[in-house]
Design brief:
One of its GO terms (molecular function) is DNA binding. Keywords: Cytoplasm, DNA-binding, Transcription, Transcription regulation. One of its GO terms (biological process) is regulation of DNA-templated transcription. This protein has helices at residues 5-14, 16-35, 45-56, 61-72, 103-115, 144-153, 177-186, 209-224, and strands at 80-87, 93-100, 120-122, 131-140, 160-164, 167-172, 194-201, 228-233. With 239 residues, it is an alpha+beta fold. It folds into 3 domains: 5-72, Arc Repressor Mutant, subunit A (Orthogonal Bundle), CATH 1.10.10; 80-129 and 202-233, Alpha-Beta Plaits; 131-201, YebC, transcriptional regulation domain (Alpha-Beta Plaits). The strands form 2 sheets. Strands 3-1-2-8 form a 4-stranded antiparallel β-sheet. It has a 4-stranded antiparallel β-sheet with strand order 5-6-4-7, with helices on both faces. The protein is globular, with a radius of gyration of 18 Å.
Length: 239
């Protein structure tokens, strides 16, 4: 698959300067999910999914509780889900998902992040057709054969199962995310190294050294934007 999911997660949350920003983004995502239905993960699948992701990033309990309490309190703060598509150096493709309470600000910030770092915005649909929506779930303490057996016993279909360092990573259709997790939980596995719904590039590209440096800077700028929740791309970063 060309991705090292645990390394990607660790990179996002490794720097102290960025840890609080990662937590803040989760706070917004949890609040939005909690407002979509009951602020209870047992009856709100969107909230349940976000909380599973937050757990893999070690988001502190007080941040989770504060976001849910804010939703329970009837806050009128409203967020809009946005998706931007664009291009970076050497034919690289990028998808940016955002949650914002100021659409004009976010559009301006994303456009500037592309434009000032060798990229440009594309129209809707110009990039997403080269990506597949994918559920990615990782566990430790099992082999790929172990995972295949327990998923078959639970009658859960997946795309692929790959061993990555100390983890086994399962790739599945997005609508199988909860079925895969439930199969693991029935087998006594409740901790996940990765629990994501992502956009996975159908084909990754390798950039020359100068293009890669410029591309990584652009991705860092995009990920640091306050309103940006996720950035997907088709570049092999060699992680």
């Amino acid at each position: 698959m060309g991705r090292k999911w645990n390394n990607i997660k660790e990179k996002k949350a490794s720097k102290d300067a960025n840890t609080s920003r990662v937590y803040a983004k989760f706070g917004v995502e949890i609040y939005v999910a909690a407002r979509q239905g009951e602020p209870n993960p047992e009856s709100n699948q969107a909230l349940k999914f976000v909380l599973e992701r937050a757990k893999t990033y070690n988001v502190p309990r007080h941040i989770i509780d504060r976001a849910i309490e804010k939703a329970k309190g009837g806050s009128e703060e409203s967020y809009t889900e946005l998706r931007y598509e664009g291009f970076g150096p050497n034919g690289s493709m990028v998808i940016v998902d955002a949650l914002t309470n100021n659409v004009n600000r976010t559009a301006s910030d994303v456009r500037a992040a592309f434009g000032k770092n060798g990229g440009n915005m594309g129209v809707s649909g110009s990039v997403t057709y080269m990506f597949d929506a994918t559920a990615v779930i990782g566990v430790e303490g099992k082999t790929a054969d172990d995972v295949l057996e327990l998923l078959m016993e639970a009658d859960v279909d997946v795309r692929d199962i790959i061993e990555e360092e100390d983890s086994v990573i399962v790739y599945a259709e997005p609508d199988q995310f909860h079925a895969v997790q439930e199969a693991f939980k029935q087998a006594g596995i409740t901790d996940f190294t990765v629990a994501e719904l992502t956009m996975l590039a159908q084909n990754e590209i390798t950039l020359p050294e100068d293009g890669l440096a410029k591309f990584e800077k652009m991705i860092d700028v995009l990920e640091d934007l306050e309103d940006v929740q996720q950035v997907y791309h088709n570049v092999d970063l060699g992680e």
